[in-house]
Each structure stands twice: as C-alpha cells, then as structure tokens.
Amino acid sequence: MTKENDRDLRSELVTAAIAMLAEPQAVAVPSLRSIARSCGVAPSAVYWHFPSEADLRSAVLDAEYASLVEAVESALDAADDVDDHLVVAGDAYITWGTAHPGAYQLLFESNDALPETRAAHGPRLQARIVELARLVDPDAAFASALLLWSAWHGVVSLRLHKTEWDWGMTPQEANRRLVQALATKRARATDGDSPTAL
After folding, report:
1. Terminus of the chain with fewer CB atoms < 10 Å: N or C?
2. CB distance 182 to 136 below 8 Å
C-alpha cells in the first residue's frame, strides 16, 4: 500500500476511532447461534421460544437483574440488627457484580434503556436502600443512596476491568470506608462543622 497524496492515514484512523468513541459502545450477550450451539440445538429452535434475539436478550437480563436484587435483599434479610445494613447491602452488590462480570456489564455498562420487565424489581430494592441511607442522612436520603450506588458501581467496574492494579484494600474494605465517609459527613454537618466532600 502506498501513501495516497501523502495523507496521514494513521492520524485519520485514530481521529475517526476517537469520534466513534464519543458514543457508548455496544455490550452484547453471546450470539443466538452460540447460545443454541451450547444447548445442542439449531439456531432456528430458539425462535420456538423467543420471537427475536432481542427477546432472548431481555429474558437473560431480566433473570440476571432479579438475581442481583435477590442477592442484596437476601443479605439484608439475613443480617443481624447489630450489622450496618448499608455495608451489608454494598457488600452483597459488589460480590454479585464481581461474580457475574458479563451480566453486570450488560446491566450497568451499556446505554440500553431498562425495560419495564426489569424495572419492576428495581423500585423495591431502591426504596430499601434509600430507607437505609435515611438513617445516616435523613435530609438527603435519595441523593445519598445514589451516591453510594455510584461508588459501589465504581468498585465493581474498576475491579472487573483493571485486574492488574493493586487497590490496597479489598472491595469490602472499600465499601466500609464509603459508608463510614457518608456517616462522618453527616455527623460533622450535624455538629455544625463544615461538611467534608465524599
């Protein structure tokens, strides 16, 4: 291949790729063909149960989202009164996410809208986390719950993708620091001190 008009194709290729990365990139479930192959059936057999590949994908994510909700709720239901339930919830969320990396990426690292089927599970867990956050920040419980979820997501996502990094603490230790920081921020604000940023 010869250089055409001395154009800097290398730079153009990098620039084009960067422009494409301005939009979130697709994260996909395994192909319908590979799923059928793992079950020992022809791809056409899938359509007896799912009208389209999108329907199969939605069913997979419904099941995985329900599994996440169940994991967090079961951990909270089994917790003792002396346990910090925000810590329990965060530990369960982080444990599930790191144990289900592909599903976690599809649920929370794609730009897909959350269908109504999955959304039915979300408000129940969300309300529970908000009530727990209200114990440490009664004036901004919802915002605090979202902040914690964002931090939990960061713990999961970075550990899934940056496995070579030395984090200096376990995910559970990171979670305890996060919850403690939220409680400390609230305590300082209540005592009249200038609240510190998380």
Report:
1. N
2. yes
> Looking at residue 82, what is its pLDDT?
74
Question: Residues 89-94: contacts with CB within 8 Å, 24+ apart?
Answer: 89/128, 89/129, 89/132, 90/148, 90/152, 90/175, 90/178, 90/179, 91/171, 91/172, 91/175, 93/68, 93/149, 93/152, 93/156, 94/152, 94/155, 94/156, 94/171, 94/172, 94/175
Residue labelled with tokens 């990171």:
174
Q: How many angstroms separate the CA atoms of 183 and 123, rounded?
A: 24
Question: Coil, strand or helix: which one is 146?
Answer: helix
Give the single-character DSSP code of 21: T
Rounded to two decimals, the pTM is: 0.81
Which pair of tokens denotes residue 186?
């609230």
Tell me if 65 sits within 8 A of 59, measured CB to CB.
no
Query: Helix H segments across the chain?
Result: 9-20, 32-38, 43-46, 53-78, 85-99, 101-108, 116-119, 122-136, 141-161, 171-190
Distance between CA atoms of residues 105 and 156, nearest Å: 10
Whole-number pLDDT of residue 86: 93
Q: What digits encode the pLDDT tens for the residues 87-113?
A: 999 999 999 999 999 889 988 987 766
Q: Which two tokens stand for residue 7?
A: 């154009």
pLDDT tens across 6-17, in order? Answer: 677 788 878 888
